[in-house]
Amino acid sequence: MDKLWEITLGDLLDEMAEKYPDHDCVIYTDRPFRKTYGEFRDLVNLAAKGFLKLGIKKGDHVSIWATNYPEWLITMFATAKIGAVLVTVNTNYKIFEAEYLFKQSDTHTLVLIDGFKDTNYVDIVHQLVPEMRGKAPGTWESKNLPYLKNVIYVGPGKHDGMMNFEQLYELGQSVSDEELAKVQKSLDVHDVINMQYTSGTTGFPKGVMLTHFNIVNNGKSIGDRMKFTHLDRLCIPVPLFHCFGCVLGVMACVTHGTTMVPVEYFSPLKVLEAISQEK
To answer: Phi and psi at residue 247, in whole multiples of 5°?
Structure first.
């Protein structure tokens, strides 16, 4: 058996960006997002610096409530680079499930999209944190979710109390590369950086804590068995909030320099289009 890797997610991405700077990393066939490993790493670094500027520190919990948007992948690696814990939120959650998860996980920052199917995430957050209504980002405090400090909205348009994901890149420009490198260097491969909620069949869901070491080697093992190389492309239509998506999909690719072709949510036509277009 191959030796297990002792490397953090951030260092792994940096290594792959050095090795395959001009090789396709992420391709979306239904939106203008196509990045090489070098470009993706640069975008991740900018978002990571934005998170630092927001005051997010190692061990803080950043929840992401979104379908397979490019920002999901960016947030996954940007939080890992600063040692924040990514909490993955099921896209089918209704208000009581979301409230339970945000409270139980001590969510400090929430990244979200408009919603999915018949669930409006923005409305739910405004119901859970009424203090956000009519307020600017960073000027409200929540009685119900006392740990929550930031809500970051992915997409055009503005919402009360929320900043936009694009603003994260702007904030990141005022933080030096050296500052990010220093934080990244201070991390340990056995630090927890990912928290996934089990389905909780016999009770409430439990947050399972995963480390850099866990998800890098789990993904690497899957990629090894699939004999991945940098010449392969993997279509990822399964949800990123589940380990099938973000570990067996994303990490299997990134450990091998493989190209990811995510689909926002499973739709037979979209998947076949992506497969046909990107071979």
So the answer is: -105, -60
- To which residue do tokens 């199917």 refer? 117
For residues 15 and 167, what is the distance between their CA atoms, to the nearest angstrom? 27
Q: What's this model's pTM, rounded to 2 decimal places?
A: 0.95
Rounded CA-CA distance 14/77 in Å is 11
From first to last of the 279 residues of the chain, give the pLDDT tens digit: 578 999 999 999 999 999 999 999 999 998 999 999 999 999 999 999 999 999 999 999 999 999 999 999 999 999 999 999 999 999 999 999 999 999 999 999 999 999 999 999 999 999 999 999 999 998 999 999 999 999 999 999 899 999 999 999 999 999 999 999 999 999 999 999 999 888 766 777 888 899 999 999 999 999 999 999 999 999 999 999 998 989 999 999 999 999 999 999 999 999 999 999 999
Phi, psi dihedral angles at 35 (to 5 degrees): -125, 140
Q: In sequence order, what DSSP letters do the residues of 118-139 get, joined into one string?
A: TEEHHHHHHHH-GGGTT--TTS
* Intra-chain end-to-end CA distance of the chain, in Å: 31
β-bridge pairing 61-65 and 107-112: parallel
Per-residue CA distances from 139 to 133, 154, 160, 206 (Å): 11, 20, 11, 31
